[in-house]
Amino acid sequence: MAAEVARSYFELRGAQQRLGVARENLASERQTLELTTLRDEAGRGSELDVQRSRARLKATEATIPPRSKPPKTKAPTDSPRSWASVPGHSTRSSSRNG
Q1: Which value, to the nearest 10 degrees, does the dihedral of the CA atoms of residues 76, 79, 81, 82 take?
Q2: What are the residue boundaries of the structural domains of the chain, listed by start?
Q3: Of 12, 18, 45, 55, which cross-links 39 as Cys (Cβ 3.0–4.6 Å)?
């Protein structure tokens, strides 16, 4: 009985560790998507890069059980931040037809 309890405890701790790593990866993927989106808006990236980042984010989200996911934040594309407000930069739609 004690061995079974110990085994269950270590399985639980391992699962908690994997969940922590998955959450850290999720935060990194969100950051990557935001940066990739900003690069695309600045003309330094592509929509394909953004779509790849978004796909990696969704794949990482899928590894985390629904009840343990942190609350969602606004997607970078919904953000009011834009490179258009930076002098010398314009939005993607103005002159770039990649």
Answers
A1: 70
A2: 1-64
A3: 45
